Amino acid sequence: MTEQPSGAAPVTSSERVGELDVLRGFALLGVLIANFVWWSFGENTALPAQTEAFAQDPGNLAAIFFTDVFVSDKANTLFAFLFGVGFWVQMQRLEERGAEFGAIYTRRLFVLLVFGLINLFLIWPWDILNLYAITGFLLFALRGMSARAMLWTGLTLALLGMPLVRWATDQLGWAEPANEMAFGEVAIATRQDAYVNGSYFEWVEATANLVWFDWIANGLIVAWILYALGRFLVGAYVARQGWLQRAGELLPQIRKIFLVAFPLGVAIEVVRVLMGEAELIDAPAWLSKWLHVVGVPILDLGYAAGLILLFHSSRFGVLARVFGPVGRMALTNYLVQGVFIGLVLYGFHGGLALAGMIEPKVVLGLCFGFYALQTVFSHWWLGRYRFGPMEWLWRTLTYGERPTMRAQSA
Questions:
Q1: Residue 406 lies in a domain
Q2: Would residue 7 count as lying in a domain?
Q3: Do the Cβ atoms of 203 and 346 come closer than 8 Å?
Q4: How many distinct helices (H) and strands (E) make up the chain?
Q5: Could you report the per-residue pLDDT of 49-58, keeping only the tens digit for each?
Q6: With 0-12 CB in 10 A as exposed, 13-18 as middle and 19+ as buried, what is 43?
Q7: Pick from 276, 266, 253: which is nearest to 298 by CA?
Q8: Structural domain boundaries enclosing 39
């Protein structure tokens, strides 16, 4: 097999930041829960009457409450933050080797965009890879910002980007007609019928319509680009400061962050849900929305600090490290999660065709069960191979060389 060119080679196992893999693996659990619960419970696949029927069961309400408080927007925020961290770490390492970072990274993003578009239209309509690739080009363009500008631009976009774009599209009148085309009762019924009873090609057509109206025509893609870019920039700033790479030296400070951020983030999100979706606290709708904007990054900070502390614990470190192999195979595991959701909800190719019929409490249980299988598989696979299957393909297409797949024997 041809050797990699000097400098231009993937990160080796010894160079990996263990905390980064653990955090990414933990985020993937949240991604699976958020995607599966909201995709199956909401108007993407379920009629209003079906959703209302689910909500009569206390077990379903508990599953929704758990997902809303502990998972919603936290998983994608953590995942996006880690993308920014990974960007900066890769840039530093490639430049230290004397490799041309720009050429390598833009190829890497282009390949990711191709993967994302295939996933978006042919497998999983809520694909995030296409968004990350597009936003990654913007992050690359902004890499020369000062550290202070990177932090404040990131925080501003992370907190205000999506609310402001959604306000603007409402004012321009884009959102309402597009949302009606995507989520009017006739549109939902037509889509559900295609998902449950239709062929794969009818599913593709229904998915393309949903992507157009709920992703592009209503301007949501712009809101999400700014949302992701803000989180990318904050992640790049943290890596730029070396905080995650030096986490073992900063444990006292990280412990203080955890003791404040985790309980505060949970409290804010509980209050937000009780005054918002649950309507148990009388408050204006805008207050609930802005509490969520603030609560998400605080709770994510608590998650990250807690996992880092656990990772460095001599007694309980294994509880964190179990997430590591899942994070090392993040692309493979993410793509497989979309296939799994499809097999449960859709009827073609032997699927269970449960769209509109599967309860949130069942979905939540399936998420934990399937993630456990992914964890076992990831540990088994990486005990034999250096990369996950899709990670290997991504590296091959990025570097133009096939890296050795088999793990070296001890």
A1: no
A2: no
A3: yes
A4: 19, 0
A5: 999 999 999 9
A6: buried
A7: 266
A8: 13-399
